[in-house]
Design a protein that fits this description.
single chain, mainly alpha, 12 helices
Length: about 270
């Protein structure tokens, strides 16, 4: 690499890093400003602290949960349910998408059913799941699967179908089987789509788990939200919501880190 080109490349990298730092600083500033305004509004009587809580009350509630040993117990229950629903939902959705790609006729037959399942409010199936699966962790995981799997199937299948027909024709000309075409061309080219599906599945899994915990649970963050609302402990509700936001963000950024690592390995970043 020539000296001039190297200098330009280093300058570009420096600009990218400065921009990322500025974006991170702006995010932290917005978050900090929100917390300050929320606390000031609660202390100044602009909002009712009993109804809207405040950062200090939320922090005190989290501290009490930690001191009593309940905090990590409830977090652990919800995380276990979410991780199981996310993992199984992603794998199952990807496998179903591959099967539908493999058989365009089957895809055409099942397409309207997939649309209906995606549009169906899953909470309506809650009472049925409780009867079928039982009032326990399994019904919550199944609810998470119902919410996340269909979305994963539709997202990944769209990515599979978007692969250029010219690549298929080339593989066919070379005498490749459909299986070879899938594993050598379609699946590698669909990695960004699969990662995007993972990002969507993260959110959907959290939604499914919390909905499930609303319906039937004796532990977990969803349980704390329902319990707090029933006994008017709104500080507990807000603390649980804040914890949920933090956990969902962590899970999302882990998937984003996986995406960055995979793209770097493929030489795309």
């Amino acid at each position: 690499m020539k000296k001039g080109t190297k200098s330009e490349h280093e300058a570009y990298i420096a600009r990218v890093r400065r921009k990322r730092a500025a974006v991170t600083a702006a995010r932290l500033m917005i978050l900090g400003l929100f917390v300050i305004i929320w606390e000031a509004a609660a202390r100044g009587g602009v909002i009712n602290a009993f109804i809207f809580s405040s950062p200090s009350r939320v922090a005190a509630t989290v501290a009490r949960l930690y001191a009593s040993g309940e905090l990590f117990y409830h977090i652990g229950v919800t995380m276990a349910e979410t991780a199981l629903g996310f993992t199984v939902g992603t794998l199952l959705g990807t496998v179903i998408a591959a099967l539908l790609w493999w058989s365009p006729t089957l895809e055409e037959i099942l397409d309207p059913f997939m649309v209906v399942l995606n549009a169906l409010p899953k909470i309506a199936l809650g009472p049925i799941l409780i009867v079928w699966v039982g009032a326990g962790m399994m019904s919550i995981v199944v609810m998470a699967l119902l919410v996340s799997t269909v979305v994963t199937v539709m997202t990944v299948l769209t990515g599979f179908n978007d692969i250029s027909g010219e690549k298929h024709l080339l593989m066919k000309t070379l005498g490749a089987t459909r299986m070879q075409t899938f594993f050598k061309v379609v699946l590698p080219a669909s990695v960004p789509t699969v990662i995007s599906a993972l990002k969507i599945s993260v959110g959907m899994s959290w939604v499914g788990v919390i909905v499930g915990e609303y319906l039937v649970s004796k532990a977990g963050l969803g349980y704390l939200i329902v319990y707090g609302g029933q006994v008017f402990k709104l500080d507990l509700v807000m603390a649980s919501i804040v914890i949920l936001c933090a956990l969902a963000a962590i899970m999302y950024y882990l998937v984003a880190a996986l995406e960055k690592a995979m793209l770097k390995k493929r030489g795309e970043v």
